[in-house]
Design a protein that fits this description.
Number of domains: 2
CATH architecture of the largest domain: Alpha-Beta Barrel
CATH class of the largest domain: Alpha Beta
Shape: globular
Helix content: 40-55%
Radius of gyration: 21 Å
CATH topology of the largest domain: TIM Barrel
Amino acid sequence: MNGKELIFSAMRNEKLDRVPWVPYTGAQIANFRNYTAKELLRDGDKLLECLLESHKQYSPDGQPVIFDLQVEAEILGCNLLWAEKSPPTVSTHPLSATMEIPVKIPAKTDGRIPMILDVMEQFKKAVGDTTALYGLVCGPFTLASHLRGTNIFMDMYDDEEYVDALLSYAADVAITMADYYIDAGMDVLGAVDPLVSQISPDSFSRFLSKPYKRFFDHIRERGVFSSFFVCGDATKNLEVMCQAGPDCLSIDENIDLAAAKKITDTYNIVISGNLQLTVVMLLGNQKDSQKAALEKIDAMGTTNFILAPGCDLPFEVPIANVIGVAQAVQNVEATRKFLESYVKEDSTVEVELPDYKNLDHILIEVLTIDSATCAACGYMKAAADEVAAVYKGRTVKVVERKILEPENIVRLGKMGVSNLPTIAINGVVSFISVIPNRQELTAAIDAIK
């Protein structure tokens, strides 16, 4: 059974001889040719070159062609900030000052779509017989947030009908993009919606159940499999996400994988994840990555589970670490023997927390994976920045603590933070995996004595 057959069998809920492996290869594969993320994501020749090399090195059973949630937003009028070591970020929101509903639906000739479709078709010809290819679209809630900005979180309280209309439009865009990708040969269509973790189950049921049910029903009618990607601690939303009808849920390290699988198994849905991106894949070595992979495999079994990183790989994840995971997946017992005597080195970093009680200002610490690459993290930091800019009476400073930096991993432990993104105000953990609106954040600041 080749990799593609393994993925298809997993999606059909069959028991397998081994766990399938899907490395979410985003901008990280640019390192194979010393390209920047910007070069990779804007040049089809470079993207295809790195996809082919990563396919050879990472031995994937399934693989995405491009992992960039800003493709649709760019076409619909959002300005992007491009970076050397991460996908672009949205810098402007065309609906921030208006409550219009756009009518433009991306055409095959718009933006980077022609380049992406061409790469998909070429990559399909090269590896599509043996590897399941993933086409990833920006999920409706994240796309609506790209267009409207953080205002959408207030809109959900103030104007439900507007939010319904905007999300219906965003779902139309997602379905259109999915059709383009299916026509280009993609086997699995994923809706990537990191901001789903930032709302309650009631809000999901009220605003997102209908558009997502429509999206996944459409994918099923097209005869391909579907996946629902979410970042952050979406534990509270797992059941309502299952009820939307995807074939697979893809989750990150904020969620207890074994506990989540009990929920997804109830709905006979595959779960995918959730190797730690930073502590293991980025900051660990190859043996750490292999050990983590074996732990997931041992815990989850070979039914309704696909091993994968928690999200797309950070740019600087060592190539050797991803290769190591592939080796562990394909040679479980040999890898287990190899790691028998391995003990991870203790490399604790000393970190001193601020003297919160004696600060002469309000300190908002936004604890993130990285606001440049994690949409939920980016919008949480934007919410803090917006309030800091208009707050009156006291000086408010905003500091981002990215877990890409080893000292911030230690800092999180000292502060008692286990889920990201999180906001702490003068050392008090105030918002965990929920993006506050202006009133909520202002009230939390006012409560600090």
